[in-house]
């Protein structure tokens, strides 16, 4: 296995012993920044790169994150910022490269500009004013002219962690197909049962035959689990098995784990690439347009909402109440409501509500039943948890193995509260439907299958091209490589002072439940995340 050293620019990289002073070799970065950048000099820890086209300095800033990883930030004219991801050439200045095998691939060799230009980056924000700074950009994903692995030497592994999500098997399949068909890789291992599978289980051999029709099945053929992240044991296992490409599919907790694995791999001086493919049915990962499986979840939720509507319309004062997933973010509930048109009220974690009194939920239910004789309520599992703990006088400090807050069943609780409230006033027929795990366990739909395929291919291209320590994600419709820290430092939430929530309120005509003294700061920026800010 190759190793690298962190060396000051004056030293040659010859030793296989890691240099614990961790000076950084920037020189090799210049070719990858492209032809427009022509010189550099060190200026108190910042790397200045002169941009030929604009004749103004472009600054590469190496900052230190909480995880002690280097942040590669390039700044340019008119407020341009590139939040770049690590690359083998940053710390393997003499790493051998090879022509991309796609050049000889009959399908790709005819495609004009199939290889991504080194200078291509994707803006985080696309709604701009004439005087807006150019803002933050991410490196565009895709195949590069040269690759940093000889296909015969590649030993790749894939692991799935955390909760289920439609499309996991499709991502696994397409990583295997991408590596095999596009790059001729022959050795691909599946890690059994999440992070702990690295050190507690045998690996599973993956090839084109094993993965052939797994995309038609829900779940993950590799198995999954929460927790089990023992960095030392995981990296020992990677080293012992000779693995040099690690593809990690999971949510924000998993991606934090991937960042720590990447750090440890770098610390040990191993030439091993770590790439994350973000997964969460809740769609709460920032920066990216949407996470795979979300579209399927919204579609599958329609079946439960339809059933709730049928039940509600068939009985006197019928109420259909559907609980959907969404621990901290109500995206599934919001989109399922907007898609359905049968929902009268959507309750999400971001929008506090109250039951009793003027403008409260009970008043609204009474009004809607009087008007139309039936109603459908959609509630995200994380909504109303504060009310629930107040009324149960139980604390909600329990956490699952991933560190997520363990929720109490708001669906059951609110059903009972509604029944109790109306018991003496009218005959109520309330049917509570909890389809949460059924939704998560289905295979991905056509749109998510395409999404999974492209994410997997982008991850494979990035790793083969020498990029490292990144998560792949769709930003404004383009695939990008995003540094781990950007997608783990916060969660994406529905901004209830943004247009989308206003559209929902106009569609259901439900109260906003905002009291006049609620202080909701308007979000003039349209939210930081790219996620579905239409
Ligand atoms: O992965 C997110 C999620 O689906 C949440 O919506 C949900 O709260 C949680 O996982 C439940 O997962 P589990 O019961 O498997 O821990």
TrEMBL record:
It is found in: Cytoplasm. Catalyzes the phosphorylation of D-fructose 6-phosphate to fructose 1,6-bisphosphate by ATP, the first committing step of glycolysis. It comes from Eruca vesicaria subsp. sativa. Its cofactor is Mg(2+). ATP binds at residues 163, 226-227, 251-254. PANTHER family: ATP-DEPENDENT 6-PHOSPHOFRUCTOKINASE 1. NCBIfam families: PRK06830.1. The record marks 253 as: Important for substrate specificity. Mg(2+) binds at residue 252. The lineage of its organism: Eukaryota, Viridiplantae, Streptophyta, Embryophyta, Tracheophyta. Residues 1-25, 512-534 are annotated as: Disordered. It holds the Pfam family PFK. It is an enzyme of class 2 (transferase). This is ATP-dependent 6-phosphofructokinase. Belongs to the phosphofructokinase type A (PFKA) family. PPi-dependent PFK group II subfamily. Atypical ATP-dependent clade 'X' sub-subfamily. HAMAP family: Phosphofructokinase_II_X. InterPro entries: ATP_PFK, PFKA, Phosphofructokinase_dom, PKF_sf, PyroP-dep_PFK_TP0108. GO terms for cellular component: cytoplasm. Gene3D superfamilies: 3.40.50.450. GO terms for molecular function: 6-phosphofructokinase activity; ATP binding; metal ion binding. Keywords: Allosteric enzyme, ATP-binding, Cytoplasm, Glycolysis, Kinase, Magnesium, Metal-binding, Nucleotide-binding, Transferase.
